[in-house]
TrEMBL record:
Family affiliation: Belongs to the metallo-dependent hydrolases superfamily. ATZ/TRZ family.
Source species: Sinorhizobium terangae
Pathway assignment: Purine metabolism; guanine degradation; xanthine from guanine: step 1/1
Listed EC numbers: 3.5.4.3
Stretches assigned to the Amidohydrolase-related domain: 67-428
Function according to Swiss-Prot or TrEMBL: Catalyzes the hydrolytic deamination of guanine, producing xanthine and ammonia.
Name listed for the protein in its UniProt record: Guanine deaminase
A Gene Ontology cellular-component term: cytosol
Amino acid sequence: MSELLIRGRVLTFVKEPEGIDDTASYRFFEDGAVLVRNGKVAGVGAHAEVAKQAGDGVKVADHRPHLVLPGLIDTHLHFPQTQAIASYGAQLLEWLNTYIFVEEQKFKAPEHAAFIAGRFMDELLANGTTTAVAYCSVHPESVDAFFNAAEARNMRMVGGKVMMDRNAPEALTDMPEKGYEETKRLIAKWHGRGRAHYAISPRFAITSTPGQMEMSRALVAEHPDCYVQTHLSENKDEIAFATSLYPQAKDYTDIYARYDLLGRKTLLGHCIHLSDREISVLAETGAVGVFCPTSNLFLGSGLFDRDRFDRLGARYSVATDVGAGTSFSMLETMDEAYKVLHLQGQRLSPLNSFYMMTLGNARALDLEHCIGSLHVGADADIVVLDSRAKPAMELRMQVASSLTEELFILQTMGDDRSVAEVYVAGKPMKCGPRGASAPAP
Ligand code: GUN
Ligand code: ZN
């Protein structure tokens, strides 16, 4: 039996905060601890209580005065775009054609895919992200590289092969049957293996013919426990193009609805320019709109209207969307989320930010039983955050007087430097017990 006692200022959410002072939404232990046994949370609470549950000679990782939270969750990004972050000057369709469809061709080579997959996982961990939902490239080799790199680190990851059969270079297209067969083979190989989850991934309506959408429908019907990920209503030119390709559809959302692609396991990147009707369809089907603030600002796409999602009862999550997103850091992402909402007169409290990065995103994935909060029985995926990681943060913290103020400083000023440690199933992955570097892939 392996045991570890992680000591620090423990914070974990139990429900969505209803405002800046909603102390009932979280549990916080100023001198707290998490007892990890065989990769799971075996105890959580005040250090004095939790320490009593530990066996004699238990190893202790003392992270005081840092915060100890559940590992962060990123619900949308593209692993083959790791080296395409910061590609200059274009909006969505031009950016895809100029940079992304060139970059993704490199992932046919298994060595390249394996190299980037390893670096990608390490970058997630360096930023405190322990679970992510990622697009791979069209090549099955890229999916093997992705899940192999996750498995080597024992990370709970969601991913899938992009399917595209038009409006992309030939080297990046699969035919409907081929996309279907490859996806089925990858699901059989990876879905449910260790901590892997598969996401059926038609890229978006522009790059899939009706034939490929039919195949996507069949895949979803045959594998209802897999996720589905695609993009919806990110950019005005995209919307005009997509709806012109599917003239029978009422609107962009209806394209996916007509192929039965909307359900509780469906993650729809962006969802910026939706009508009330479309958001209501998401609410009825349980599909999740994914808010990607750094990406939406970087590509000049628009502003996600969270309050309308709340009013119409639709689910949403938050994500980096690397490589249109400009950072792997969920802290930096929430900093931009705050600003995107602020511009629309909407408030994002620090409690809500930290809820969204953890339990909120876990709920969006229906994975709250195992990740997103530190309850007994949860996976011991844990991040340790240092609110004084930079001199300017240290100075600002000298005059901070509450937990919520500290959280807001972390989100506004923090980045990977604020991640003091990250645990995957109880194993330290960033600094290690003696400050060692991350394990080799
Ligand atoms: N829409 C279709 N593909 C993509 C992509 O790779 N990134 C973003 N931001 N939007 C997309
Ligand atoms: Zn995307």
